[in-house]
Amino acid sequence: MHAGKPILYSYFRSSCSWRVRIALALKNISYETVPINLIKDGGQQFSKEFQALNPMKQVPALKIDGITISQSLAIIEYLEETHPTPRLLPQDPKKRALVRMISDVITSGIQPLQNLSILKQVGQENQLAWAQKVISSGFNALEQILQSTAGKYCVGDEVSMADLCLVPQVANAERYKVDLTPYPTINHINKSLLALEAFQVSHPCRQQDTPPELRA
Q1: Is the peptide bond before 86 cis (omega within 30 degrees of 0)?
Q2: Residue 207: how many CB atoms within 10 A of its CB?
Q3: CA–CA separation, 151 vs 141, rounded Å?
Q4: pTM
């Protein structure tokens, strides 16, 4: 690996990793990927080597500028501060607060409740119903919020950190067969974002650790 190039510890299907991959693509930051398979070998995130990088035993983790950062929003905020163009947080404080609010609704209020570690706890036979329930509940609130904040994207007409959180969560919803009909605002924004190159190159179907049968 090239000295000095950022290293992203990622899993192709991880929505948290996807958020960071989008940010890296938007900001045109070249990086190396080290795949961490969350399923294989009982979960490679539980290895002593990876636990030394991230004691929470979760992806993503990013080695950059001599430090290792975990937690996707912390990584994105660091990239925003060190590579401010294009900006992912609006200059206006009120809009910036809305971006952070929507990001937190998804990353704290929806995604963790349907994460792999939680699904394991509810039992195989209950996983689909549980994921559908928590995502639908969150999307009911998110749709209402976005109706007052959205333009072309989550907050107005500029791509922001909120959009980086939205697209992977919609993909999770589709994976768990959530009926998205009640969420026209979410659907419209998601469609607009998926047309952008940064969201395409970072997509789970186009990663080096994507299984052949899931590639596109």
Answers
A1: yes
A2: 22
A3: 18
A4: 0.95
